[in-house]
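Lab notebook, bench 4. Still working through the backlog of constructs that have no structural model yet. Next entry is a single chain of 338 residues. Request: give me the structure tokens for it.
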Amino acid sequence: MSSVINVFDLDFPWQTQDPFLFCVYHKDDFPKGNGKSGPKASLVGRNIGQDFNSVDGWNMYHGETVPGFPAHPHRGFETITVVNEGVVDHADSLNAAGRYGGGDTQWMTAGKGVQHSEMFPLVNEEQGNPLVMFQIWINLPAKNKIVKPHFAMLWGKDTPVVECADVKGKVSTVKIIAGEFNGYRPPSPPPESWANDPENGVWVWNIKMPSHAQFTLPASSAGLNRVLYFYKGQVATVQTTPIKTQQGVHLMSDAEVILHSGDEACEFLLLQGRPIDEPVARYGPFVMNTELEIQQAFSDYRKDQFGGWPWPNTAPVHFDAKGRFAKHADGTLEEPDV
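Model written out:
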């Protein structure tokens, strides 16, 4: 029996399976910064506030002067923001903040409700500011949907990148955001996360292969949803099934899978996990189990905006940051470069 269940074309956002809810890949070739964290380029002709058309290879998204996503609420799930290149400035309704990027991951449990902003400051004024990142939403089981909000930083230096050479000496790499590979495991996800229990088999891997290389994706437990997203390259082969870039592959989770890259280097995102298998009611930024709970989420948000917004504007940028940092709601400060 083939380990390939089906192949599908990637839409925007990418199609996901339980326990994952949403996945997008952002690649923006931002220009030089203008000294105020915005682009040193004209914004004429862009749909400011709703700019998703990749004019000149980059977007402002919902930002007006700085690219990014100003304050917006979430409840009932988690966001995993994996930044391979570029910078993200975080601020939230709990008065927590951070600047991260260049290999870092932020894992945020929205739980009972939080507002946050994710801005992309263009800090380099002498050259371009490329941004390469994934944002992934993973569901919470009903028992954890109203837990206290929390975020964890998985700094790049603590995130394993495992090298694997094939018989020809071609070296592929696996960046492990969640799960385990060849004895390597990243820092634990937040305590209430579905991914925190190893029995749930949650893997989030970024796989990079040089041209004409082979990589073996190991078997995991049965009964998991396993999807491989091919987002960079031209062609590849999954077992004996040819695929092309911007396609996804739904795989058997308990079977070993052999990948072959083509004439160009290839990059993949792997999302795997045991389904939560509960009803899903979702509307915009809220994901609960029933429509009544969605209505309650809107009512609670209208009441106090999940704690209000302690920042001077909806799109704060940390102009005074000397480097990467995370300031948590309890005042704890992390500075990985110090």
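Notes after review: The chain has one helix and 24 strands. The chain has a mean pLDDT of 97. Flag for follow-up if needed.
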